[in-house]
Automatic annotation (TrEMBL):
One of the Pfam families matching this protein, by short name: Methyltransf_23
PANTHER family per the UniProt record, alphabetical: TRANS-ACONITATE 2-METHYLTRANSFERASE-RELATED
E.C. designation(s): 2.1.1.222, 2.1.1.64
GO MF term list: 2-polyprenyl-6-hydroxyphenol methylase activity; 3-demethylubiquinol 3-O-methyltransferase activity
Signal peptide: none
Annotated GO biological process: methylation
Name of the molecule in the record: Class I SAM-dependent methyltransferase
């Protein structure tokens, strides 16, 4: 919405709230351990999370099956002057054992990736194994209920219903996402994989329902983020986190 600040178009701005949150988690862990962290970013793609973490002094291993993404990651790392702290390796959850060769990491990120893997339970178990005891997981996945609301608001009632009842949370055969998640399902998957202290936060609860043309400044994004925070922090309203377009999970390896 209009404001008095200079306008900054979508996508041209500062790190996302989730990337900033991961930075804060890494800072806390690093302070506790008294050294830079060893980080695994599974499905880290072009380095949206890995590059800021390496810029903050941590050592990040990005594991991703896409050679194109890894090439972009390498270019970004060169441009940022952090090639000594970012390593990109082609692979997936099944390759972690061989890639890490028994080494444990302090922090594992898996953002926007669990939707695409063959077996989310096996991938979470592999990540748990890569983390040492007490290691921290940052997991970001697409939420099922958000797409149900978005489709209903757009008048796509059959697709909204499909997303609600489909075991994988898909709205149809042309849905580009193979899978979406519910909060309870995530909590079960994480407990089964050996994670504890699981905190799930819904992100982008309202923003994804607002037409993009109405969000065109940093002030708009900040106002929506504040609305999200206020929404879930009111008494009896914590369940609204389940409506997040993305669900950000932070958990500890038992
Ligand atoms: C939506 S992108 C997310 C990239 C990055 N994590 C981010 O948040 O910007 C999904 C990434 O998952 C990777 N991917 C797809 N299948 C995978 C698998 N089985 N194991 C690990 N990564 C996978 C893709 O190559 C892609 O880089």
């Amino acid at each position: 919405m209009p404001d008095d600040q200079p306008r900054q178009r979508r996508g041209a701005a500062r790190p996302s709230a989730v990337v900033s949150a991961v930075g804060r988690i890494a800072d806390e862990c690093g302070t506790r351990l008294g050294r830079p962290l060893e980080v695994l970013d599974l499905g880290g793609g072009t380095g949206g999370v890995a590059v800021p973490l390496a810029e903050a002094g941590h050592r990040v291993t990005v594991v991703d099956p896409s050679p194109d993404a890894l090439a972009s990651l390498a270019r970004r790392a060169r441009e940022a002057g952090i090639v000594d702290r970012v390593i990109g390796v082609q692979g997936d959850g099944d390759s972690l054992d061989g890639i890490l060769a028994g080494r444990h990491v302090d922090l594992a990120c898996c953002h926007g990736t669990l939707e695409f893997v063959d077996d989310p339970a096996a991938t979470l178990r592999a990540i748990a194994q890569a983390l040492g005891q007490g290691g921290v997981l940052s997991l970001l996945v697409s939420g099922r209920l958000a797409v149900v609301f978005a489709k209903a608001i757009a008048g796509e009632f059959a697709q909204a219903r499909a997303a609600l009842v489909d075991p994988s949370g898909r709205w149809g055969s042309t849905d580009p996402l193979p899978r979406r998640f519910d909060v309870e399902q995530l909590e079960t998957l994480l407990a089964d994989a050996g994670f504890t202290d699981v905190v799930v936060r819904g992100t982008n609860i309202l923003g994804h329902l607002v037409p993009a043309s109405l969000i065109d400044s940093e002030a708009d994004r900040a106002a929506l983020a504040e609305l999200d925070d206020l929404l879930v922090s009111g008494p009896g309203r914590e369940f609204l986190r389940t409506l997040g377009n993305a669900l950000h999970v932070v958990a500890r390896r038992d």
